[in-house]
Design brief:
Blueprint lengths: L1 E6 L8 E6 L10 E11 L4 H6 L7 E2 L3 E9 L11 E5 L12 E5 L3 E3 L6 H21 L7 E4 L5 H12 L3 E6 L2 H8 L7 E4 L7 H8 L5 E5 L19 H7 E9 L8 H10 L2 E4 L4 H4 L4 H17 L15 H9 L6 E4 L1
Parallel strand pairs: 9-10, 9-12, 10-11, 12-13, 13-14
Antiparallel strand pairs: 1-2, 1-4, 3-5, 3-7, 3-15, 5-6, 6-8
Helix pairs in contact: 2-3, 2-9, 5-6
Length: 345
């Protein structure tokens, strides 16, 4: 059978995605589950993270968010049986590509998929749901009555954050990056308190947030990247400046950032100190990179798919692409020209 792999180029910006022949061992491990893949989500490969963890291969398996049907289980597997529908995320060191017809995965990375939830939907949204749950529950300790500011709420991750927060009685503000996204966010149900357009002038952010919160600031800020310097490039002009985010935080507030190389100057730290505010880095890969909290991770995955099935989380549908378009589609995703893609097998 065939699978999708990445051959790293001379630089991380020049990877090559190739379809390679692969095979599975004849004997199934005791705790492994053999799954027939029905859909696989594609997300960018983080070469720097793989290097930091010492995972170095000539061919890196691509496609890790999978949904499928159990074909066979190992003799010590206790969670699943053949014919069960499952969903999960392959660990970073998995030798399997999620874009194979059949994969092997440890049972502790899988949860049951609700029958009425489509494989394409859950494979496309599972990672964003995991990120939103980790940011709001694990890091920010979200509670009813809190005020939340979500940057770029129309993104797949931002949308998950908004819907999860509204479900728990949180007052949500968000920013929009285009007139079309602004209209989309204003029509969301349950509705957000305020949609702040930043595509014309990002300087409106602070006064609008302070007006909506009575000058107190918000309890939680979740960004989708930040600007470290005042000068703007085409790529970062819609991102908030780090000082703007610190300014909109209230006393005791939580800032959850996706920015991997965030640098804070002493005045920034002083400002956070005066507010007794905290900063947390969102690394969703930590769940599969460490087995220290495996049970908690599985609980989160189960909660996410149940909320999708119940309609609490309603991800924007991803149009599934066939396997023969996977290499071109993955190259587009890796260049960040497309946030997400789903391949249907």
């Amino acid at each position: 059978m065939k699978g999708l792999y990445c051959r790293a180029g001379e630089s991380d910006a020049d990877p090559k995605f190739v379809i390679q022949e692969t095979s599975l061992p004849e004997i199934l491990g005791s705790h492994l589950v053999r799954v027939q893949v029905k859909a696989c989500g594609l997300s960018p490969v983080d070469f720097k993270l793989l290097d930091d963890l010492g995972i170095q291969r000539d061919l890196i398996p691509v496609g890790r968010e999978v949904a499928g049907i159990v074909l066979q289980v190992g003799d010590k597997v206790s969670f699943f049986q053949p014919e069960d529908e499952v969903v999960g995320i392959l660990p970073l060191d998995s030798p399997c590509s999620g874009l194979c017809d059949v994969i092997e995965i440890d049972e502790h990375y899988l949860v049951q998929k609700p029958e009425k939830l489509s494989s394409v939907c859950v494979a496309g949204a599972l990672r964003d749901g995991l990120c939103a749950h980790t940011a709001l529950h694990t890091h920010a300790r979200m509670a009813a009555g809190h005020t939340l500011l979500v940057m770029d709420g129309a993104s797949s991750f931002g949308l998950m954050c908004i819907q999860l927060a509204c479900h728990h009685g949180v007052k949500v503000l968000t920013t929009s990056h285009s007139p079309q996204k602004h209209t989309f966010l204003e029509q969301l149900r349950p509705s957000v308190v305020k949609v702040i357009p930043v595509y014309n002038d990002s300087s409106d952010l602070l006064p609008v947030v302070l007006e909506e919160t009575g000058g107190l600031g918000v309890d939680i800020v979740i960004d989708s990247g930040v600007r470290l310097h005042e000068e703007e490039s085409e790529k970062t002009k819609l991102l908030p400046h780090k000082h703007d985010i610190i300014s909109v935080l209230g006393v005791g507030g939580h800032w959850v950032t996706s920015h991997k190389d965030l640098q804070l100057d002493p005045p920034d730290c002083r400002f956070l100190y005066l507010k007794s505010a905290s900063l947390t880095f969102l690394n969703h890969e930590v769940w599969t990179a460490s087995s220290a909290q495996q049970g908690r991770y599985l609980h989160i995955l189960k909660d996410i798919v149940e909320k999708m099935s119940a309609g609490v989380l309603r991800p924007q549908p991803e149009e599934a692409v066939p396997l023969y378009e996977a290499t071109v589609t993955m190259a587009t995703v890796q260049r960040h020209q497309k946030k997400k893609a789903v391949v249907q097998l």
